[in-house]
Amino acid sequence: MKHTKVIEVLQSDKLLQPVLVKGWVRSFRNDRFIAVNDGSTINNIQCVLEDNTIDAAIQSRINVGAAVAIEGTLIESQGKGQRVEIQVSNVEIEGDADPEELKLTILSPKRHTLEKLREQAHLRVRTNTFGAIMRVRSKLSFAIHEYFQKNDFYYVHTPVITKSDAEGAGEAFKVTNLDLNNIPKNENGEVDYKEDFFGGETNLTVSGQLEAETYAMGLGQVYTFGPTFRAENSNTSRHLAEFWMVEPEVAFCDLDGNMDLAEDFIKYVIQFVLDNCQDDLEFLENRLVQEDKQKPQAERAEMLLRDKLKFILENNFKRVSYTEAIDILKNSKPNKKKKFKFPIDGWGADLQSEHERFLVEKHFKCPVILFDYPADIKSFYMRLNEDGKTVRAMDILFPGIGEIVGGSQREERLDVLKEKMAALNIPEEELWWYLDTRRFGTCTHSGFGLGFERLVLFVTGMGNIRDVIPYPRTPLNAEF
Amino acid sequence: MKHTKVIEVLQSDKLLQPVLVKGWVRSFRNDRFIAVNDGSTINNIQCVLEDNTIDAAIQSRINVGAAVAIEGTLIESQGKGQRVEIQVSNVEIEGDADPEELKLTILSPKRHTLEKLREQAHLRVRTNTFGAIMRVRSKLSFAIHEYFQKNDFYYVHTPVITKSDAEGAGEAFKVTNLDLNNIPKNENGEVDYKEDFFGGETNLTVSGQLEAETYAMGLGQVYTFGPTFRAENSNTSRHLAEFWMVEPEVAFCDLDGNMDLAEDFIKYVIQFVLDNCQDDLEFLENRLVQEDKQKPQAERAEMLLRDKLKFILENNFKRVSYTEAIDILKNSKPNKKKKFKFPIDGWGADLQSEHERFLVEKHFKCPVILFDYPADIKSFYMRLNEDGKTVRAMDILFPGIGEIVGGSQREERLDVLKEKMAALNIPEEELWWYLDTRRFGTCTHSGFGLGFERLVLFVTGMGNIRDVIPYPRTPLNAEF
């Protein structure tokens, strides 16, 4: 007999028919009720054991965490909380879980802190919270692909190992095959990268944008979705050394089109999880409600998780120029009362997290798209405006998360781009191929990068980015 | 007026209505016919210019490679080869392409070798061949996600940077943030990895399998689809230092289930591209036909590209045990006539490419799944059979490609796994978390890895793996 996934059993109407499920014991109450979960859904199937149905030796091995195969008959449930349950006829133990050993792990049935769960990241996916997060993460990933594919974008795998560090600004990890105990040196006493695997210095990518641009010039509309790396020593709840980024790039698209795309895209994927992750979102929402009960009133969330997601769908993102934003901030109460750590006294300053939060959470109370930033605080490839001092950049700021998207219309004019690179000492030889896109059939084009984990944070309501990726990489931590 | 994608224009029935397209000039014949491509499809839209419609200065800039915006009226085409065309009313040049400069690139309208195209990988996607390959690659990627998501698998992002090198066998790239010109040393004179970003030695992953297994033990059915790395010095047409791999992992699934899954999966994604990439496949098929005309009869393909793909769909993969395969090979003509470079004289030998090709292309003439390999030539995590000498491994061999899938039922028994690791000197401390999956609720489970680029090779009919990934990384090459 083939086994059936729990998600299917729970929706099945094949009452009084035999059924086989395989999964892990989540609880075993009163020597009678076995809750089995197989990961296909957050919901367990209740398996009801009558007296003497199974061997006592087997019964004694039905422990939390054990892998079991349970045969029985599907019946309407007598109890509350589930529509159907299984009247057990046979139990096989596929894999034991010794309660004494289990006690030492986060699988033991008691409350563990998220920090503790992180130390056993290989087991935490077996908990309700992390099962829910990772299912939502998977569905969100798929929604991203579906959105772009439906809209005739092509998926491009930009390289992870790269020689160019134009964007890295020293924050790129090095990749090497050299023996670090015995680094070959050239006649000048410097590392002889000619001896290395790629015959040159190589890094882990900090962004696939430049390569994606070359592909947009051929395929028109492309997107990347892949891992990205920063050797940035920031131990915060919002930074990872390895994270996944989504980077669409569109030919013949200006900054307005770019903002339209980003907003439409984000709304699509949020709608997708609302439609496809109802049980997991409900669980995560309740989790937050419980968590909030421990907090003082003022720190509690203003909206339930799913209401917050619906709010995003139902409201236009507020589009505000950097210059307007500076005016608002300069005249804001916290600025006048000197409550900002970085006071705003004029045009040109980079916005800090406190400013972004004020704009999004206090002033506009909705997602905000800031655009037309000062050229000096943005990257070399962003298109210079006619004013000569701002660039066609845009950042999307989300409540509780801060920057979730950063994008721009790209500088398509070869001469302007070269001037900018020269001013920043970016050697043309390094980016000859990038410059070629401006040499042959250059055109207006735009794109953005979305930090995938920040989106997962927002959608799941989790507070630490380490809890929305299976195996987080942070300073001093690359376990598993 | 908003512009319309060429793929939509070509299917449009809005005859006699105004239309705006934006794209790149592929050809300009008789001062009259502009073929414009925007990457959305391999097909161009023909734009017909009447005399004196546009300024001579503009007309002189309509060169191959230039980016143009063309307005006009959609009309039924008078010529052969297209249903509709655009009667031009206005042309704007978005970006020039100087014919003299273009001559120096692969965009110049003449035949270039694939080797030459590789040197300008940033431009090759603008050619018909690479546009087609990369659109097919994108669709194949999506088909992979769709298959697993439809079948209730969850997508897992396993880490790229990892401390464990259990599988790497020295073929993993090192990742570091240390200054290679000034490596910190500890008191023993060895590299002091404590000073490194992660506080220890780290590598680029060679497989996400072990981490995927931990996730299958929670979510039941998972898959990875991400970049994988090998610092292997093989300059062949089938190896890349950076490639994408698909790795499903399924709890409560044995080797038979694993073979069923792999076959069903491959057939699904091939059917998907047959359904969704008709124009690109037709182009690639014709390309091969042309290529074959240069070859002697004996070396020509036996089947057209799409017939080869359909053949995969219509036939069961032949399942053959390693032991049977050895018998067939031992008694084969090439073996008896000493035509194999590595003669087969007994059980236990690893199969070489020549043997695999004989089995697939000469003997069975269809995809073959070889299973139950000798334990000695396979990985430590594969389940030992009752015979004590073979393991529940399987490889899928494809005509022209060789191994496209490698998988196994995993050793779920803690004691057997530990013995195997000890025999191979794999320290338990390094894989404590992996062993935990066998300690708590272990179960029968299986999975496989599919080298994505090999699948793209097969589907596109290309001969060199460097031509099916945007920016190939190989020994001494990490350009762009």
TrEMBL record, chains A, B:
Its main location: cytoplasm. The keyword Protein biosynthesis applies. One of its GO terms (molecular function) is nucleic acid binding. The keyword Methyltransferase does not apply. It comes from the Bacteria. InterPro entries: Aa-tRNA-synt_II (IPR004364), aa-tRNA-synth_II (IPR006195), aa-tRNA-synth_II/BPL/LPL (IPR045864), Asn-tRNA-ligase (IPR004522), Asp/Asn-tRNA-synth_IIb (IPR002312), NA-bd_OB-fold (IPR012340), NA-bd_OB_tRNA (IPR004365). It is found in: Cytoplasm. Gene3D superfamilies: Bira Bifunctional Protein, Domain 2, Nucleic acid-binding proteins. Its EC number is 6.1.1.22. One of its GO terms (biological process) is asparaginyl-tRNA aminoacylation. It catalyses: tRNA(Asn) + L-asparagine + ATP = L-asparaginyl-tRNA(Asn) + AMP + diphosphate + H(+). Residues 274-301 form a coiled coil. GO terms for cellular component: cytoplasm. Keywords: Aminoacyl-tRNA synthetase, ATP-binding, Coiled coil, Cytoplasm, Ligase, Nucleotide-binding, Protein biosynthesis. Residues 134-470 form the Aminoacyl-transfer RNA synthetases class-II family profile domain. HAMAP family: Asn_tRNA_synth (MF_00534). Belongs to the class-II aminoacyl-tRNA synthetase family. Homodimer. This is Asparagine--tRNA ligase. The gene is asnS.
